[in-house]
Amino acid sequence: MTTPRPETLAKLTPVLTKRWLSPDAWRLGTYEKLDGYAALRKALKAHPDDLIQLIKDSGLRGRGGAGFPTGLKWGFIPQGDGKPHYLVVNADEGEPGTCKDLPLMTHDPHSLVEGVIIASYAIRASRAYIYIRGEAVHAARRLRNAVNEAKAKGYLGQNILGSGFDLELVVHSGAGAYICGEETALLDSLEGFRGQPRLRPPFPATHGLYASPTVVNNVGTIASVPYIVLGGADWWKSMGTEKSAGPMIYSLSGRIANPGQYECGLGITLRELIELAGGMQPGHNLKFWTPGGSSTPLLTAEHLDVPLDFEGVAAAGSILGTTATQIFSDQDCPVYATYRWLEFYHHESCGKCTPCREGNYWMVRVYRRILAGQGTQADLDTLLDTCDNILGRSFCGLGDGATSPVTSSLKYFKQDYLDYIEGRTAPKLSEKTLVGAH
């Protein structure tokens, strides 16, 4: 294990994670001692439009993967329309390798609750929902406890802190469907329907929950809001890069000495993150990695110094995504890793559209054939052709994301595929997987 250099350690930015290791960090008393709800008091004295402008000025971009400017999204909500407005927090974290929202909700739930109240005040919403993944039982308990504590103290409910602003906050547990991480599928699930993506337009900003104006934001996005209100836009922009402002929680997993969550300013490199994590495991050398979860194109050891911000990763041919950095070594097989990811996408496809439903189904079977030593070179063309028929033709981003590891692994590691096909690598799957497989 290597010791990080002082200049690398200096890149650690404890903002969103500053309370995580405090005793009883999830309790209201601890939160209030560490600036808790000070931002709410400040926000309630401001005009809602000024808060939206503050978030615009800060350059905060969505932390759920798309990186859309948060203040701009809030500004899309029509005002004076006579309809109820809603804020929905997407806490359905389910991307393989991603684990930044769950620890935040578990260790510091009040930061999310406070962010929800401020954001709801800004967009004039009197009802808000946190939609959390069904398996996240512990985090959901912590959130519900935080909501009860906040309500008992007057931070939620009627006439919050004497401001005249009312807000009810509901923590809703889903049923564990990955597709509900897609914002419109999440809204359908909240309404009691099967979680499937909606056709857009119309967009949630005007026709969201119950056909009313709705803002859907990620956990990390909303939890950032209190810090921006307290510190100001310029302070927030002092971290990160010019176009990707602020800190980000990077989920590091795989062949490194110390997997975990590392909060740094946007723009840090994988080389520095690996150094912070104590280096690669003994006997392992970096071969490939995901910058933002399994739905982002793979990168290689040649990309160690790519800035991990929205622009830098895009320039390298991938997507920052959820900053779920899965690290694989020369002892890992990119073909097998892609197969396992595809099995996930095939299983989690909602089945609404043909490209995703059928394309992932058949690509899984092609991978099984290749990994069982029964593949042909024509299978590689079939994979690329299938990806071409899924990408941009699926109803939502699930299908597009499923093609990312396939096309990128073929781009960088075609020889690994050919080694299975031409018999140089021993089969990883038995021929039994080809018979009656589902």
Automatic annotation (TrEMBL):
Its EC number is 7.1.1.-. Keywords: 4Fe-4S, Flavoprotein, FMN, Iron, Iron-sulfur, Metal-binding, NAD, Oxidoreductase, Quinone, Translocase. PANTHER family: NADH-QUINONE OXIDOREDUCTASE SUBUNIT F. This is NADH-quinone oxidoreductase subunit F. Belongs to the complex I 51 kDa subunit family. Signal peptide: none annotated. It comes from Micromonospora endophytica. NDH-1 shuttles electrons from NADH, via FMN and iron-sulfur (Fe-S) centers, to quinones in the respiratory chain. Its cofactor is FMN; [4Fe-4S] cluster. NCBIfam families: nuoF_fam, PRK13596.1. The keyword Iron applies. InterPro entries: NADH-UbQ_OxRdtase_51kDa_CS, NADH-UbQ_OxRdtase_suF, Nuo51_FMN-bd, Nuo51_FMN-bd_sf, Nuop51_4Fe4S-bd, Nuop51_4Fe4S-bd_sf, Soluble_ligand-bd. Transmembrane segments: none annotated. It catalyses: a quinone + NADH + 5 H(+)(in) = a quinol + NAD(+) + 4 H(+)(out). SMART domains: NADH_4Fe-4S. GO terms for molecular function: 4 iron, 4 sulfur cluster binding; FMN binding; metal ion binding; NAD binding; NADH dehydrogenase (ubiquinone) activity; oxidoreductase activity; quinone binding. Pfam families: Complex1_51K, NADH_4Fe-4S, SLBB.
